[in-house]
Amino acid sequence: MQKEIDQAINVLQQGGLILYPTDTVWGIGCDATNESAVKKIYDLKQREDSKALICLVANDAMLERTIEEVPDLAYDIMDLSIKPTTIVYDNPKGVAKNLIAEDNTLAIRVASDKFCRYLINKFKKPIVSTSSNISGRPTPKSFGEIDKVILKGVDYVVNLQPEQKYAVPSAIIKLSSDGTVKVIRE
User: Fold this and answer.
1) Distance between CA atoms of 136 and 45, rounded to whole angstroms?
2) How far is residue 159's CA from residue 39's CA, in Å, rounded to a whole number?
3) Residue among 182, 184, 156 at smallest CA distance from 172
4) What is the pTM of this model?
5) Which pLDDT tens digit goes with each residue over 82-103?
């Protein structure tokens, strides 16, 4: 696993794209602080850059460095969730401008699988995590379902099997600074 982490970090540091197993589905990732790398993902997915992408962090401390103020309720949601849960926060900071939604929010998940946590911890910055499909097409449930355009469009494919057997996208909850909670995807 260490070799895969080192290879992925090398690509991320150079502004490249990786294809990697996450705690949910196979994801396309890049340095979440690098605007040109984020643009490459939008281009590869043939997705409008007005549609926000998810960002992964390694732990609560990295989350707190990426969001102006993390509501206490966010920690309760993360602790009580039975599946990976992405939370949309107000007022992100320190990430690429084209990663932030028009309403000044950012979707972030604290990674729960070992590979992602190690990778992000060692990289020391959040990474983008978006499903490995062309925009508008179904999310691949396994590596074998990933479109060849995606496979050819990334700079490195991590050679590890995902920890979970059945790939399911994360739940998404929007948590506004004013205390409003909205479930976007269960």
Assistant:
1) 9
2) 24
3) 184
4) 0.93
5) 889 999 999 999 999 999 999 9
